[in-house]
Design goal:
heterodimer; A: alpha/beta; Chemotaxis Receptor Methyltransferase Cher, domain 1; Rossmann fold; 2 domains; 3-stranded antiparallel β-sheet; 10 strands; 18% strand; B: alpha/beta; 5-stranded parallel β-sheet; 5 helices; 45% helix; binds S-adenosylmethionine
């Protein structure tokens, strides 16, 4: 089933308005392959019919479903490993030393997808920094997708997902097997506060952050939106806080107030000092 | 870098062997624990062994125990690759000295991700 030029434009405009995700011309195949199953599921004979409905009833819940299917949720436990090594070996020890007096840390994961990233970091804390048990840790993880947020809160992973990047020793320690699936145990689950936030709209109040991870999501936005979001992250961070981007992302030519740290392939930044 | 694939299924040995070769290993293989011990003595040492659990003669769990008895092989990274998915089995293998555990079915991506968390740099 081929998507018409005008339907493609309608969908890309809608998705950009609601999520900032920029679908360039040439992504017709992607839109088709994601919208087709949605059209079928929702009982439309074709993409054309679905778009007709969207045009005639703009306030329909269908709009969010379109955005939902157009997001890419690819993730894994300890994705790219290097940022987690850097957190463990450099960033957290430093922050713990600096916050010794207040014994408070605020952490934000800004595109949590199905939860592997926030849970990986929560496990890293539990495994390596038991002293933080008595600290006040505010750990917020957000995403635009209600479906993904539900997955985060449920904390249930298929065998295929649990096989990806999670050390076996942590799997048996922090997860319970339920039939063919694995569920995050309660003490890990309750470390993270999962909330809805659309990065491209106004953000709900969050406390000043010691650590921000917004990995593998800015790649979907256009330059203007990347700049806007980096600007907001900058304001949200404590002056000596740290910020992590995905392996293929950079602040270069977008926002010069960030300084890339020289930790191997970890996408670690801080605010330029002085 | 040399790796060993130990599985009684020839098909699995081929698939795992190909994945490891793509990643940059030289690969030897064995169809059970006894053969694997012999192979290990021939080649001296391997960086990594992927070990099935259920095999005739000597199973993968017994193989891990055997290897861990011998100081010569203390640096060999052992990863179970098996259809056994009970938590108790995973724990048993880790306690015997396996470094990692992967549940079948697997993909190339999963193997790479496991290697990287074991500190084996790939690709
Ligand atoms: C590829 S995943 C990245 C997951 C994780 N951070 C990682 O690196 O593995 C991208 C996530 O960004 C979310 N996302 C897309 N647009 C968004 C927006 N405008 N606001 C918030 N989240 C968004 C998607 O729902 C998806 O879960």
């Amino acid at each position: 089933m081929n998507i018409s030029e005008s339907d493609f434009q309608f969908i890309t405009k809608l998705v950009k308005e609601l999520s900032a995700i920029a679908l360039e011309p040439g992504k017709e195949y992607l839109v088709e392959s994601r919208i087709n199953p949605l059209a079928q599921k929702e009982g439309f004979a074709s993409i054309e019919e679905l778009v007709k409905k969207l045009r005639s009833e703009p306030q329909n819940g269908l709009r969010n479903k379109v955005v939902e299917v157009m997001t890419t949720n690819e993730t894994s436990f300890f994705r790219d490993i290097h940022p987690f090594e850097t957190l463990k070996n450099f960033v957290l020890p430093e922050l713990i030393e600096k916050r010794e007096k207040t014994r408070e840390l605020n952490i934000w994961c800004g595109a949590s997808s199905s939860g592997q990233e926030p849970y990986s970091f929560a496990m890293l804390i539990k495994e390596n920094f038991p002293q933080l048990d008595s600290w006040k840790i505010k750990y917020i993880a957000t995403d635009i997708s209600d479906e993904m947020l539900k997955r985060c809160r449920d904390g249930i992973y298929s065998q295929l997902e649990i096989n990806r990047g999670l050390p076996a020793a942590m799997m048996v320690k922090y997860f319970e097997r339920q039939g063919t699936e694995w569920r995050v145990k309660e003490d890990l689950r309750k470390m993270v506060d999962f909330r809805y936030t659309n990065l491209s709209e106004n953000w709900p109040y969050m406390p000043p952050m010691d650590l921000v991870m917004v990995r593998n999501v800015l790649i979907y936005f256009d330059v203007e939106m990347k700049k806007q979001i980096l600007g907001k992250i900058k304001k949200l961070m404590r002056p000596d806080g740290y910020f992590f981007l995905g392996a293929a992302e950079t602040t270069l030519n977008l926002d010069e107030s960030f300084e890339r740290m020289n930790y191997k392939q970890s996408g670690c930044y801080r605010l330029r000092q002085g | 870098m040399l790796a060993m694939v130990i599985d009684d299924s020839k098909a699995i040995r081929l698939i795992l062997g190909k994945i490891l070769k793509d990643i940059g290993f030289e690969v030897v293989d064995a169809a059970n624990g006894v053969e694997a011990m012999e192979r290990l003595k021939e080649v001296g040492k391997v960086e990594l062994a992927l070990v099935d659990w259920n095999m005739p003669e000597m199973n993968g769990y017994e193989f891990v125990c055997e290897v861990r008895k011998d100081e010569t092989y203390k640096d060999v990274r052992l990863m179970m690759v098996t259809t056994e998915t009970e938590t108790s089995q995973v724990i048993k293998a880790l306690e015997a000295g396996a470094n990692e555990y992967l549940m079948k079915p697997f993909t190339k991506e999963m193997i790479q991700e496991k290697l990287s968390i074991m500190g084996i740099s790939v690709g």
